[in-house]
Amino acid sequence: MTDIRDDVAATFTELFGYEPSGLWSAPGRVNLIGEHTDYNEGFVLPLAINRRTVLALGIRDDARIRIGSEFADEVVEIALDELAPDHLAGWSAYPLGVAWALGEHGADLAAVPGVDIYLDSSVPVGAGLSSSAAIESAVAIALNDVWQLGFDRQTLAKVGQLAENRAVGAPTGIMDQSAVLLGERDAAVFLDCRSLNDEIVPLGFAEADLQLLIIDTGVTHAHATGGYADRRKSCEAGAATMGVKALRDLTIDDLDRAREVLDDETFRRVRHVVTEDQRVLDTVRVLREQGPRAIGELLDASHASMRDDFEISVPELDLAVETAQANGAIGARMTGGGFGGSAIALASSSDISRIQVAIDGAFAEHAFQQPTMFVVTASDGASRE
Ligand code: ADP
Ligand code: MG
Fold first, then answer.
1. Among 249, 287, 314, 365, which residue has the fewest nearby CB atoms (within 10 Å)?
2. Which mutation among 131, 139, 165, 334 tests ligand 1's pocket best, with the greatest number of atoms within 8 A of CB?
3. What is residue 5's predicted lDDT score, i.e. its pLDDT?
């Protein structure tokens, strides 16, 4: 962390020729449970992690934005009055889309000064840990501060989502930005994606001597296309046939009728979402009543549902989960949108290295690309440094 912060400030000065007026950062997130429930207006339980995107920002005396990233060769420059979602492309669509989306939420972009931004990140890209929400949220809180917009964090989450939906073109829900903006140390964010009501739920992992291991399979996913859009369509069709506004409105008791009126594939998509919503509610209750050691079965059941009903897992994710479970994890599941990305395993600290060795061995045996594994802790959300 400290390294990135120092480097970001130094590179900003090298690149733009003056010292930044401040540093802001935003974490990645991992979803503990509640997958593909957000756009069905249901429940999710993500946490902010101790990997962050850090940016340095300086104020200009004209109305232009320049932005550079450790990840990119070029500095992108645009006038504030040229910001339009259809004109933005590539990596800079995320941060510049946020500047545009602030305008859509009522910021007067004709009255604010231009800015220079340089950023770097320790959130792995495309691993299902939402490097996208990290970059969006870091930019959102920074511009909210220096442009003195006074938006609350819930509004900034919507700003990030709008940027991702319109400027990037990825039809994602509100979960990622909410986790990244609202997260707290050793806690998860319980989010009702209909009311947008959010509640902090203490995890107590450290006290229970548990650690959360991320297993990044390195298999890449394509959120904006393909499977994700298909699943959304199935969910919408299922809700329409069942006569409800969103799958959130169904409960386990409705599944018998769903089986009768829906085709088999749509039924299984619906069953995943309905049971997953219930698992999120159960996880929150179990965390509060029994503590984190009791949530393992819910994590395991979530994975089985995504593998068999929603069909968004891949062999690498299944292998990571099964190997973790067989080597002492109290629970494991794929996390994120699916079709690659990461799995999580919750385990006693003393079992973590055994699990890692076993997963490495299993991946080698299957001739899968070596996964990247690291422990994360639940951390504070986006902030000024
Ligand atoms: P995920 O959010 O799962 O990491 P996405 O495909 O949603 O994956 O978002 C990743 C994209 O976000 C990258 O391809 C890049 O365009 C952009 N991005 C994320 N972090 C940075 C960064 N530090 N610098 C530049 N672009 C970034
Ligand atoms: Mg993303």
1. 365
2. 131
3. 84
